[in-house]
Amino acid sequence: MFSRLRNFVSRNRRKFIVGGIVVAGTSLAVRYAQQRLREYQEKQVREFLEKTRRLQHFESTEKTTDQAILGLMPGLCDAITKLLDTDAILAELRTNTERKLDLWEELKYLAFAKCTTFVYATALLVASLRVQLNIIGGYLYKDTVQSEAKITKEVQTIYNLLLIQHLMNDGLQQLVKVISSNVEKIMKSHSLKEKMTLSDVEQIFWSIQTAIEKDINKNLVQFILPSEVHRNQQDEFLNKMLSDTLDVLECGDFIDLCESCFNNGFSVVTDKVADFFVEPQNGKNKLNGNTEAVPSTSKATSENMLLANGHVNINNISLPLAKLIPIMNALTTQTFTNNSADNIKPNNLAASLISLQIINTNIKTLAANVYEVYSN
Matching Pfam families, A to Z (predicted)? Predict the structure, then answer.
């Protein structure tokens, strides 16, 4: 029997060798495939966890940015109000009858300049802070992944203060100067007695925006970042962060985004003014709900100004510029509070502007792209 078995093995030796090689190779291939599958699965899990951590960190950065914007907004409103103060003129108008016409002319310039400044300042505040804090957030996430600490708290503080202080002080003063000079040029040709429709108001804002475009849109950095500041810091990494910030602020995408924000802001102002082309119900002022007198439009609601359904055709209503000025001024004199959403009143221009820019998807997309670049 052993002889037969030996002869069988001898006759089929090659088959046994080949079969053994095939079985061993298959086993090795299966083990290799299983190992690569585990490695792939582990890589997928690591990438998923990393994306999740990065997304959570980005969302946390966005929440911090929103809180910072709302925290800075009251100070920005106060700064604009001080630079374009109308209270002194209003007080003098109540007592001085000799300079009344000159005072009204000055109030005309200030009212339109304040509305314009609110549009530009809020857009620049939101857009620049999104960029600034997402650059910091990206670098902080990279430090966490690489277990390094390139960004110290001192560097963060200096970086934040350099940009915020400039925008809230020198940058805002430059912005107001440019806006005021151009508003005065545009408004000189408009008499206080001139009748204006809502379309005329839109045209004025369009003219103002066009006039200041070459001074503001083409060099936005001057209002956000101090000139040459990124070359004058002792900390090398701080210089790099400031240089990176400058690169983002000077890119075409950021400039185009700000231009879009300015356009949206003027639309908000026009919508607010439009509320006062129709007489408020019960004679109450829509700005604050009290019974303070507002420009009357009762004469405007004649039959030729009504639509077929009996509603007022706002496009046919006109008001003297002298009656629009108090409206423009009142829109920018309301206080902005950030204690809760309930404190953001619907007719508060500052709140409406900042709310519009905070939820702006284009700004959020830019912020996400900035974070992605500097977190890798």
Answer: Peroxin-3
Q: Token digits for 365?
A: 């997309």
Q: Is 319 helix (H, G, I), strand (E, B) or coil?
A: strand
**Which tokens go with 282?**
């019960």
Torsion sign, CA atoms 274, 279, 282, 284 = positive
Secondary structure letter of residue 306 according to DSSP:
B
> Are the beta carbons of 376 and 146 closer than 8 angstroms?
no
Measured between alpha carbons, how far is 365 from 261 in angstroms, rounded to an integer? 14
Higher pLDDT, 359 or 97: 359
Residue 279's pLDDT is 53
Outline where the chain has alpha helix (H).
Answer: 2-11, 13-83, 87-95, 100-146, 153-168, 170-187, 198-216, 221-224, 236-250, 252-274, 321-331, 349-358, 361-375
The answer to whether 348 touches 272, Cβ cutoff 8 Å, is no
DSSP states of 106-154 as a string? HHHHHHHHHHHHHHHHHHHHHHHHHHHHHHHHHHHHHHHHHT---S-HH
CA gap 283, 303 in Å, rounded: 21
Answer whether 268's CB lies under 8 Å from 353's CB: yes
Rounded to a whole number of angstroms, the distance between the first and last alpha carbons of the chain is: 72
| Digit-coded pLDDT (tens) for 268-297 | 999 998 888 765 433 344 444 443 334 333
**Across the chain, what does the average pLDDT equal?**
80
Dist CA 313 CA 310 (whole Å): 9
Q: Which two three-digit tokens encode residue 347? A: 């007719």
Whole-number Cα distances in Å, 288 to 122, 144, 275, 327: 22, 49, 13, 12
Render 91-103 in DSSP notation, one character per residue. Answer: HHHHH-STTHHHH
Q: Say which DSSP state 280 is in.
A: P
pLDDT in tens, 213-269: 877 877 888 899 887 665 556 678 888 888 889 899 988 899 999 999 999 999 999
> What pTM value is reported for the model?
0.81
Q: How far apart are CA 188 and CA 207, in angstroms?
A: 12
Domain ranges, ordered by start, for the chain:
64-375
C-alpha 248/C-alpha 242 separation (Å) is 10
